[in-house]
Design brief:
Blueprint lengths: L1 H14 L10 E5 L6 H12 L9 H14 L4 E5 L9 H15 L4 E6 L14 H6 L3 E2 L8 H16 L10 H4 L1 H8 L3 H18 L6 H5 L10 E2 L1
Parallel strand pairs: 1-2, 2-3
Antiparallel strand pairs: 3-5, 4-5
Helix pairs in contact: 2-3, 3-4, 8-9
């Protein structure tokens, strides 16, 4: 979710539409463990705030939602935890078919994120052949600071997290100045960086300090995170 929020913020900034409520550049949801087409529509509609859409069934409402996203200027629709979609079962296969129809009616790019997607039901076996042809896999690995360009990119990534912090007393630029410390703590993992900053921001709100400090970051443990795959 943090990555989706950063992408949304960057697109709004680039387009000069930071506070435009009629503009929704990024839509994000996760695939439930036991999902149905209706559950998928509910998750997407809740994100957009469009539960009032009417249709005789969830399939039609997904198509109506795709048309609404066109009018909102949506550029990306992110479906996370796609490895949970079991297309070997009838319900999962139906959801996959409706995602395909939804994508065909979108004027936006769909991003499928998850772990071990190369062996996930949606992309594996005979049933996954069509999805493999429709998508391009991108393997996500940890950042490496092997040269100045890598270091600059890492600092920019940290800065993008800092720009969306909802902390009124946070010292602007503090995380960016300590980008090397954050790299040491996270090993260059975007997921670990996101978890660390989100946990620190949550604690800052809970403690009432409304700011992230090095002492606060030091107090937070980080779990090991494997690299992921997006399509």
């Amino acid at each position: 979710m943090a990555a989706g929020k950063r992408l949304d913020t960057e697109i709004r900034r680039t387009c000069g539409r930071e506070n435009d409520l009629s503009f929704l550049p990024v839509v994000y949801t996760t695939i439930a463990t036991a999902t149905t087409t209706n559950k998928l529509w509910v998750r997407l509609a809740d994100f957009v705030g469009a539960r009032e859409l009417r249709g005789s069934n969830a399939d039609e409402r997904l198509v109506d939602l795709a048309r609404l996203l066109k009018s909102l200027g949506t550029k990306f629709v992110i479906l996370d935890d796609v490895q949970r979609l079991n297309t070997d079962r009838a319900a999962g296969a139906e959801v996959a078919d409706n995602i395909k129809t939804f994508a065909e009616n979108l004027d936006a790019t769909m991003l499928f994120a998850g772990i071990s997607l190369e062996t996930a039901p949606l992309f594996s076996g005979e049933n996954g052949e069509q999805w493999r042809k429709r998508t391009r896999p991108i393997n996500l690995s940890n950042y490496s600071l092997s040269n100045d360009a890598d270091h600059k990119e890492w600092v920019q990534l940290v800065a993008s997290f800092e720009r969306i912090l909802p902390l009124p007393l946070h010292e602007h630029g503090m995380l960016e100045r300590h980008a090397d410390y954050l790299y040491h703590r996270t090993g260059g993992s975007i997921a670990s960086l996101s978890d660390l900053i989100i946990d620190a921001a949550t604690d800052a709100i809970d403690f009432g300090t409304e700011a992230i400090t090095l002492d606060l970051l030091d107090s937070i443990s980080i779990d090991d995170v494997d690299s992921g795959v997006a399509r």
